[in-house]
Prior knowledge:
Chain A has helices at about 20-55, 55-65, 70-95, 100-130. Chain A is mainly alpha-helical. Chain A has a domain at about 20-35 and about 65-130: 3 helical TM bundles of succinate and fumarate reductases (Up-down Bundle). In chain A, helix 1 (about 20-55) packs across helix 3. Chain A is elongated and about 65 Å long. The relative contact order of chain A is 0.11. Chain B is mainly α. Chain B has one domain: 3 helical TM bundles of succinate and fumarate reductases (Up-down Bundle). In chain B, helix 3 (about 55-65) crosses helix 5 and helix 4 (about 65-95) packs antiparallel against helix 5 (about 100-130). The longest helix of chain B is centred in the last third of the chain and has 30 residues, at about 100-130. Classes of the chains: A mainly alpha, B mainly alpha. The interface between A and B is medium-sized, with 30 and 34 residues. The structure holds protoporphyrin IX containing FE. Protoporphyrin IX containing FE (HEM) sits at the interface of chains A and B.
Amino acid sequence: MSRTSEAQRPLSPHLQIYKPTVTMVMSILHRITGAALFFGTLLVVALLVAMAAGPNAYGTVQAIYGSIPGKLVLFGYTWALFHHMLGGVRHLIWDTGAMFDRQGRTSLGWATLVGSAGLTLLVWALVLMR
Amino acid sequence: MHSEKKSIRTPIARVRGLGAAKSGTGHFWLQRLTAVSNIPLTLAMVVIVVMLAKLDYAGARALVANPLVGILLIAFLVSALVHMRLGMQIIIEDYVHEEGMKIVLILLNTFFAVLMGLASIYAILRIGFGG
Ligand code: HEM
């Protein structure tokens, strides 16, 4: 972007002046989770490449993923994935023009939060179950 | 207004292709398309990875060597990588305003996505063909 001139006008108020709403928080979370998933893809790719490379490499990756920090990162990745997926569904619903009113926005925001927490816990219950 | 300058070019011809993405609505549309395909494919990937977590090396290999599993994983990776490359480009364009840095980051973004795709598809095919 080119800054052609310094306009001597007051700036419009920025984010911190507004009382946060679910819709605002969900909006920034969608971007943060999207960016996190960008790097999270590496986790899936590393697992597959290690598997192709052989039992030693696979064992190393499994040991890292099975450690406490590894599990924390994977837990975060799972949540980001589900949160972004449900947030994405919300965007796709809006693309049709539906649920764009205040009530619709607020309930979709809460549904995204509750749904992503629920799905994440479900998956980890399955993983940790023997 | 500088549009007063003598020119036979119409205003639309002058701005066409000059948007931030240099590509009109194609970018937006492909992001929606891959958002839709990401939904079932992400769920499939999560189910497969949860199954992998329970298997030893030989079992994990056998699972990925299954054609349906291998194809679903490749489909997930292609869909997610195309989608995340578009998404990250938007983030870069939103926050990086210095032209040179912006172009470098957009290049790296594409290289990263292509490399991830090649590496994972190579790995899946190799496991599938028993190499
Ligand atoms: C699982 C299903 C998914 C759905 C339904 C989905 C949906 C969407 C939608 C609709 C957008 C556009 C949001 C907007 O216009 O503001 C978006 C952005 C984005 N997505 Fe996804 N996505 C999914 C999975 C993924 C995955 C797996 C990744 C990364 C590997 C990813 C990375 C991104 C990024 C980086 C953005 C840009 C964020 C932004 O501009 O704020 N998405 N997603």
